[in-house]
């Protein structure tokens, strides 16, 4: 059973400067909730209650967010404002949180490897919190992926079709279709130019990884941008065994940039906030 979910959260959030100069990008609010809280809720809904966060310098607000604020709680105790804290209290009650710091930014693969002491030798999920995923009428994306893992027992990446001109923003896969929404991965390239892309099936920020990935990452040379890429490590795993790519049900918003962030804000306002489901 998968119990752990890793959140690489040490990145700078340069696309959102200057907002992210002193504030972690994972704390940017979508309506009234920070991005990372949506990710942790998705993880808990999938049964992953052991939350591991890879942080970095200037990210202490993340730890404070997943903690009690005595002064605040005391102030609003017994008032109608208590309802605002119901959701975050549930996370504090039902999840455990552990942290480690990535001291140098050497890529997503390196960030995931930094989380190894928190994960140990078991399969785990990875959430990139700036990809906000929603599926209001059905299972969350991680729930869908955990179900798939229980069936196939191998690493899984979530994918979506993107505009062929945009492949240079993503890890891109090629594979053999084994179900209308599942591919067995045969090739994977990090941020290829459109003319070099093996398809327009792009990896988004949800992964399930088997723990052998850590040794593979240790032996993965820096790739695109001089960084250790999880895409390259997964390609090794795909050669040896099985890596699946899953076309998830739901919508994903790229909240690392203004357009996706605004779309996510409008979506959450309409679908959660207005109907009182935002806490
Ligand atoms: C990372 C991964 C990339 C993936 C993307 C999803 O890139 O390296 O393969 O497609 O996340 O959001 P980043 O957006 O961190 O540059």
Describe this structure in words.
This protein starts with a strand and ends in a 6-residue tail after the last helix. Helix 5 crosses helix 9. A hairpin with a 2-residue loop joins strand 9 (171-179) and strand 10. The model has no long low-confidence stretch (mean pLDDT 95). The chain has a single domain, classed as Spore Coat Polysaccharide Biosynthesis Protein SpsA, Chain A (Alpha-Beta Complex). With 279 residues, the chain is α/β, with parallel strands linked by helices. It has helices at 35-45, 60-65, 70-76, 86-94, 108-114, 116-119, 141-152, 213-218, 230-240, 258-273, and strands at 4-8, 29-30, 33-34, 50-55, 96-101, 124-127, 131-134, 155-161, 171-179, 182-190, 201-209, 243-247, 251-254. The chain has ten helices and 13 strands.
Keywords:
alpha/beta; globular; single chain; 279 residues; two-stranded antiparallel sheet; 10 helices; binds 1-O-phosphono-alpha-D-glucopyranose; Spore Coat Polysaccharide Biosynthesis Protein SpsA, Chain A; five-stranded mixed β-barrel; 32% helix
